[in-house]
Structure formats: C-alpha cells, structure tokens
UniProtKB/TrEMBL annotation:
GO terms for molecular function: 4 iron, 4 sulfur cluster binding; metal ion binding; oxidoreductase activity. This is 4Fe-4S dicluster domain-containing protein. It comes from Halolamina salina. Pfam families: Fer4, Fer4_9, FlpD. Keywords: 4Fe-4S, Iron, Iron-sulfur, Metal-binding, Oxidoreductase. InterPro entries: 4Fe4S_Fe-S-bd (IPR017896), 4Fe4S_Fe_S_CS (IPR017900), Fe-S_Ferredoxin (IPR050572), MvhD/FlpD (IPR003813). PROSITE patterns: 4FE4S_FER_1, 4FE4S_FER_2. Residues 332-361, 571-599, 600-629 form the 4Fe-4S ferredoxin-type domain.
Length: 705
C-alpha cells in the first residue's frame, strides 16, 4: 500500500492543529501527509498532483461532510484509484468540536493511522443470494393488502376478521379464511399454519351467516369463530363445509406482512414485517425474485461445536442471533441463512471455535485498528509537540456502533459546532457494525494492548438488532474477569441519547476519570490471534485470541487468584470415579481437548477447551463436569510446558489373544453385567470370556472358532 493522508480543516480551522496531525501520523504505509484549507474545493488540484507525484494507491482524508467526501473520491478515481481506495476520518464532529485542540489533534492523527491499519486487513467483497417469488401473505390488514396488490401476488389472511364491507379494493387480492396458529420458515419459504371452522369446500352461500348468531360468523371470508355457541346453524351447510372442531391447513409465502404479529428475532427477520408503514411496500417489492447482498460471514462447519451423534453441544450462535438467521434443523446441527444475516456480528462474537467469523470488519482488522490507536508514547503521542502532558493521557478504546450510536455522537458534534457547550472524553473510536460484534476476545485484546479501559458505545432503545443494552451480560463478565486479574472494573456500556449529551458526557467522564493507568505498556503488543504457535485453528478465533490477550495481562499483573472467572469460552473439566473410559468424550470434542491413552488415562488440555459442553452432555456415565473460567495452574506455561494433564486414571484391558488394549475394565464389567447372560458360551471352548477379546479377535472366535 502507498497511502496519502490529506488533512483539511473543513471550515473549522480551530478544530485541530494541522501541523500537529502531520507530525502525529506514523503508519509506515503513509507516504505523505498533506494539509490544506478547503481541500474539496481549491485544494483538489493540489491533492491530485500529490496523488500522481507519490504514485498513491489509497487516500485517507479528514472530511466528515458527504459532499466533500464525494468530491475527494471523484478526484481519486480520476487519478486511477479504485472507488473503494478512499477512506475518510471525522476530525470535526467527533474530535475538534467536542475535545480541546491537543486532544482532537492527537485523536485525529491516531484515527488516520488506525484507518490505514484497517485498510490493510480489508476483506474482498463477496455476495450471497436466495431465490424467492412474489407471493406475499398479509395477515388481518386489508389496507396493507390493498397497497401491495398492484405490486405482488397478495393473499389476505382474515385472521378472524370480516372484510364483507367494501372499505378497501380487494379485487386483486385472494382473501383466505382462518386464524394463524403458527408461523415458521424464512424468506422465500415461510409457512403459516392456519385453523378455520369452515373448510375449503365452502361455496359462499351465506346460509350459516344468516342463521348463525351475530359476531360469531363472518361473511367474507365465511368462517365461524372458535368461541361461537353451538346451535342448529352448524348443520345448515349444504356442502358440509362446517367443521366445529376446526381444521388446519398450511399457506406458503415468500414474504409475510403481519401488523401487530409476533416478533421474529429480536431485531427482525428478512421478508417478515410485524408492522406496516410507507417503507414496507418498496422493501417488499425490492425483494421480489429473491435477495442478493454482500456476504457478511465466513463459515467453516468443520469447526462447529454445535453437537455430534445426536448430542447437543454449543448453542451460543443460535441464542445470540437477533434475526432468526441461525437455526438448529437437528439437535446436533446448526444452519446459517446468509441472506437473512443483518451483519450485526452477534454469532461471531459468541462463537468460541471460529466456525463463523465476520468478514468485515474481521477480528484481525479490529485488532490492528486497536493496536494502531494505542501506539503511543507516555503522556500522548504529541506531548512533545504541544509540551508537557498535553494530549490524550488516559487511552480508552471505544467500540462504537456504526448505526444510531455513531449518528448520535455526530449530532453532539454538530450541536457543539453551532455553539452549545458540549464536550466529552477523547475516547478512541473503533467502528463496529453493532455492539453485538464485541465479545469476550475484543475487550481483553484492547486491555492487553495497553488501553486504560474499554467503552462499548451502542444505540440504546434505537438498536436495530438486540435491544437497549445488548452487552450488559458481557460487561458484567468482563469486569468480574478484570477484577480477578487485579485490574479492577475497566469495561462499561454507553448509549448516547440524541437529546441528552450531558448525561452521556457525565457518565463517560465518571468512567474514564475512575480508571487507574494500565500496568500494560502501549505500543508494544501485536496480536497473533493464536493460543499456541502450532494451533490447528485459524488465528483470531474468540477463544484463542482471548487466551493470547489474557496471557499478556497475566504476565503484567500476576494476580493471586488461580481461577479467572467471567470467561465463558474457557472450560475446566472434572471427571468422577464413574468414568469407564469410553471414547465418547474424546470423539465428541470439537477442539481435540480430550484424549484417552492406551494405558487407561483420560487427559485434558485446558488451553484448547472452549466450554461447549459436548463432553458433559454426551458422557454416558455422567462422569464429566465442565465449569467456565480460566484456571492458570492448568495452562502449559504453569506445568513445565506440558499441555496435557490426567483427569482420570483407569485400567485398560488388553485382548487376551492379540494383546491390543481395547477397552477399560469398567466398561467391560458394565457390559458384562448387562448382557453377559445372553452371550454365555459364544466363545466356544476357550477358557476366557468373550468380553476379554478385542472386536477383531472376538469376531474370529465367534465365527471361525
């Protein structure tokens, strides 16, 4: 990469010190840092000349205004750069207008470096698609059905209502009787289970309507309410279409509009609308024929710990997904609907094994941006430029949701720009798709890199995915862990409300001012994302990346506690005397953290255990217990480098014929007690029991003599 950084004052010359920014940018791929007043106007020609002179292939510019960004991007494209090779940094709304000059200048310089670091890890774009038709089922809303009737093949499901009065034009709408009893499926293949008291044999003669009690029988479509009283009218149908006990049928749909219906997924589901407003019809129409969108996930089901052989294991992704994009078609399977994925990252931050990872921003990209933001000298990167301890003295990484939370912070900046007294701590921003992206690995990584604290800045009540405080449980667990690590509480969640910047500023001030300086130095950590050098897993899985960060923190703090609590992707295995050394646990373990030796020893590798629970739920003897948490004494660095520890010692039985160890004594005795009477004598004239032979020799004894 050959990057040019362009610093523009964007109409706010006092917001930052341009010379200070030029001094502070230090990424090795930045070939030149140039500054100008009104870069997107008079400065465009000079910027184009710099791009040509230095043969740049990327441009990073301080330009928060959309019009300025468009003109700078057009300049770069005219110089032969790719449309995606231009990135922008907000030095004004997010820095200069809400921080003092020294803080804003340093934050801008660091953010430019972090932007460049992120560009190095940017994933190539890919798309996913799913075919669908244009059949839309509208539940109980004639107005919605009418508005969609010119756009789609519309079925209006009455859901117990009567549309006999001509308030809406339903000539092009199929009106179906019945009430919704169940809704399943996904975009392109929804199924509604519908129950009615009148069958499809109904000819619409209205005899039951005329004879039945008022409000109990609807005229269009003809149907009888579940709580309708008994009476002779139930026997008046000339075609026997009345079924008082009710009949069920299934209606298929590509999309469903169900105003007031149940929420599917905490954050909604592709093709399903539980409300109806002016934005729904064009959205529905845009999805006729199917959906095509960027591919948000990299998935490797070979790494998945969801289950095996009918045993349920890890359920974190299905529990985390707010959009019904992850399902369990079987107890031991997980399926991802990538077209339904809304790019929130909830499944990826929850997955401990790396079976599913967010493509953009990837975990490695987040790590590099964090490291770049924290690559600083004591007292601030520009302390020598401004003198004394000026600049950012307490570095706090802020994972900021790029949706409403980012908009709220920008609105604070604009209000400050027009004269309101608004300021807050100069937190160092890392943009994420949603705060759901942040998990058990991202927080320790930032602390390992020297951050004094981690602020998770989300959308509050406006969150499009997981509700007002999706990270409450994570924050609680991380603070338990950092307290055990003798760092104290260093993580907090903030939801800036657009109309109350003072509350946000006060809460953030209290958090930052209460942090002690980190004992870990900044500028010295570059994550590899691996738990061990020879790990068979790809780097930057949640578990391995977190383990690397925790080891760095432990080296700096050396706490008194052995077990670090609050860590959900680390498991501590205990085995009772009920163990019969069956191979179930070692066979089920998705990370190969369990092995059985030939001499009857069950061994456990704590550094590789991701706490999926498969071994515990699958153990036929119920001998295994897994508890969450990192146990320092069980890590190889505290066991003279030995990765494996014995957790149970039993006795293996050797085949009396060939000498091969083939089962444990406990397993043999258990099977012998259960079926010994049934197979007595099948070993012929041998002096040994049939249970003393391995499978191969047993077959030869039985069938060959």
């Amino acid at each position: 990469m050959k990057v040019g950084a362009f610093v523009c004052d964007c109409g706010a010359p006092d917001a930052i010190d341009a010379e200070g920014v030029r001094e502070g940018v230090g990424d090795e791929d930045v070939e030149v840092v140039a500054s100008a007043s009104h870069l997107c106007g008079d400065g465009l020609g000079k910027a184009a000349a710099v791009v040509e002179e230095y043969d740049l292939d990327h441009v990073v510019a301080t330009a928060p205004d959309a019009g300025c960004q468009r003109r700078i991007q057009e300049m770069a494209e005219a110089q032969g750069l790719h449309p995606d090779a231009t990135a922008f940094v907000d030095h004004r709304e997010g820095s200069g207008w809400v921080h003092d000059t020294a803080e804003a200048t340093e934050k801008t310089a660091r953010t430019i470096d972090a932007t460049v670091a992120g560009l190095r890890e940017e994933a190539p774009s890919r798309t996913v698609s799913k075919e669908a038709g244009d059949h839309v089922v509208v539940v109980g809303d004639a107005a919605a059905a009418e508005s969609l009737s010119g756009r789609a093949d519309v079925t209006l499901l009455a859901n117990g209502l009567d549309f006999g009065e001509p308030e809406h034009d339903l000539d092009d709408v199929d009106v179906e009787r019945g009430r919704v009893r169940d809704l399943s499926g996904s975009f392109g293949e929804f199924e509604l289970t519908v129950e009615a008291r009148v069958t499809e044999d109904c000819i619409g003669c209205m005899e039951c309507v005329k004879q039945g009690p008022d409000e109990a029988v609807s005229s269009y479509p003809v149907d009888i309410a579940p709580d309708a009283p008994d009476g002779e009218y139930l026997d008046c149908c000339p075609v026997d279409a009345i079924e008082p006990e009710g009949v069920e049928r299934t209606i298929e749909a590509d999309q469903v509009v169900y105003p007031g219906g149940p929420t599917r997924g905490r954050g909604g589901q592709l093709g399903y609308f539980s409300h109806f407003d002016g934005g729904v019809p064009p959205t529905v129409e845009s999805q006729f024929g199917g959906a095509s969108k960027p591919q948000h996930l990299d998935i490797d089901m070979n790494l998945c710990a969801s289950g095996d052989s009918g045993v349920e294991g890890c359920t974190r992704c299905t529990e985390a997904c707010p959009h019904e994009a992850v399902s369990r078609p079987a107890v031991d399977e997980v399926a991802f609907d990538e077209t339904a994925c809304m790019d929130c990252g909830a499944c990826t931050s929850a997955c401990p094994t790396g079976a599913v990872e967010l493509r953009e921003p990837s975990n490695e990209r987040l790590a590099r941006e964090v490291e770049s933001l924290l690559d600083m000298e004591e007292g601030g990167r520009l302390s020598s430029f401004f003198g004394g301890d000026s600049g950012i003295e307490s570095p706090v990484i802020a994972f900021v949701c790029s949706e409403q939370a980012a908009d709220a912070l920008e609105s604070y900046g604009r209000r400050a720009g027009r004269g309101e007294d608004i300021s807050y701590q100069p937190i160092l921003p890392v943009r994420v798709n949603c705060t759901d992206t942040v998990g058990e690995a991202q927080v320790p990584d930032a602390l390992a890199a020297g951050a004094d604290g981690v602020a998770i800045v989300g959308c509050g009540d406006d969150c499009l995915h997981s509700g007002p405080d999706p990270k409450a449980e994570l924050v609680e667990r991380m603070n338990i862990a950092t307290n055990d690590l003798e760092l104290g509480a260093r993580t907090a969640f903030f939801a800036p409300a657009g109309d109350d910047p003072a509350s946000f500023a006060d809460e953030l001030d209290g958090f930052v001012e209460g942090l002690e300086p980190s004992p870990l130095p900044t500028g010295e950590h570059e994550a590899t994302g691996t738990g061990r050098p020879d790990s068979p897993r790809e780097p930057f899985t949640t578990h391995d990346w977190a383990l690397e960060s925790l080891r760095r923190i432990l080296a700096a703090t050396d706490p008194d506690r052995d077990v670090i609590r609050g860590l959900d992707t680390f498991g501590r295995m205990e085995v009772s005397d009920d163990c019969n050394l069956t191979p179930t646990c070692s066979t089920l373990c998705p990370t190969d953290a369990i092995q059985r030796t030939g001499d009857g020893e069950l061994q456990f590798n704590h550094a590789d255990c991701v706490n999926c629970g498969l071994c515990e739920s699958g153990c036929p003897e119920g001998a295994i217990t897994i508890e969450p948490g990192l146990e320092r004494s069980r890590l190889p660095e505290n066991r003279d480098g030995e990765e494996w520890e014995p957790v149970f010692e039993g006795e293996m039985i050797e085949c009396v014929r060939c000498g091969t160890p083939f089962t444990s004594r406990g397993s043999m005795e258990k099977v012998q007690d259960e079926v010994g009477d049934l197979v007595e004598g099948v070993a012929g004239d041998t002096e040994h029991s049939i249970f003393e032979y391995c499978d191969e020799c047993r077959a030869q004894i039985v069938f060959q003599g």
